[in-house]
Design goal:
Elements (H helix, E strand, L loop, with lengths): L2 H20 L6 H8 L18 H9 L5 H12 L4 E2 L8 H5 L1 E8 L4 E2 L3 E8 L4 E6 L3 E8 L2 E5 L6 E3 L4 E4 L5 E5 L4 E8 L6 E6 L5 E7 L12
Parallel strand pairs: 2-3
Antiparallel strand pairs: 1-2, 2-4, 4-11, 5-10, 5-12, 6-9, 6-11, 7-8, 7-10, 12-13
Helix pairs in contact: 1-2, 1-4, 3-4
The structure holds fe (ii) ion (FE2).
The site of fe (ii) ion has 4 residues, from loops.
Length: 228
């Protein structure tokens, strides 16, 4: 099976899951609508090998992924073709943020299948890692395939634990933080809505106020690009 058809299979299977969950949660509607727009338009073919401390662990973690076989097998097949990127890099990024998370686009502006309405793919994070408070204008869902994590949506909110088959929706611009459990985590991330505004770090000052700084600029959705 080609990578393109694996990506299509991924989109269909993921859509089916969200349609099932969406029967009792309207917050999933925007993701369902965007996934329904996925067609066979091919995207770029990033298949480079990423030299990153997390990569040797990926196959083992994916082998433990839970969910419909068609979903887990398409994710494993797409992961094995390479094309992962380090989520944050460059000035102002500390080793923790750089070394403990990687991603791969499957659907979207840079996906295996091109689409302007969403960004969806694999997000792989190290055990015991804390992904600091950040926000973005895109509406986001994390759907867990392997491992458990605590998701905090809002600076004063209580974190909520999710594991395989469970999800968390982060509304547009709400700051959120992730704390990974004692095993690495594979999440399916999906963004809809504003796919181009930057991601910001939120840093708490001594007086309890929060300062925002740009964490990452995002590539445009409609033209070829080489940004991560
Ligand atoms: Fe996010």
């Amino acid at each position: 099976m080609t990578s393109q058809s694996q990506a299509l299979q991924f989109a269909h299977s993921y859509l089916e899951i969200l349609e099932g969950l969406g029967a009792s949660d309207d917050a999933l509607s925007p993701f369902i609508e965007a996934l329904r727009s996925v067609d066979e338009t091919p995207g770029d073919n990033a298949t480079h090998t990423l030299d990153h401390p997390l990569m040797p662990l990926l196959e083992g973690v994916l082998a433990k992924a839970e969910g419909p076989q068609v979903l887990t097998s398409s994710v494993a097949a797409l992961a094995s073709e390479g094309g992962f990127f380090q989520v944050y890099e460059g000035e102002g990024i500390n080793a923790t943020q750089a070394d403990y998370m990687v991603g791969k686009h499957i659907l979207g502006p840079k996906g295996r299948l091109f689409n302007e309405k969403l960004r969806a793919g694999i997000f792989f994070l190290a055990a015991n890692f804390e992904y600091p408070m950040h926000n973005h204008a895109g509406l986001e869902i994390y759907y867990v395939l392997s491992g458990t994590l605590d998701v905090q949506n809002g600076v004063d909110a209580e974190p909520r634990r999710i594991g395989p088959g469970e999800y968390s929706v982060t509304p547009s611009n709400v700051p959120h933080a992730l704390t990974i459990g004692n095993e690495p985590v594979v999440i399916l991330y999906t963004w809809v809505g504003d796919l181009v505004s930057p991601i910001y770090w939120w840093v708490e000052e001594e007086d309890g106020s929060w300062t925002k700084t740009i964490a990452k600029e995002l590539a445009p959705t409609s033209s070829p690009d080489t940004n991560k």
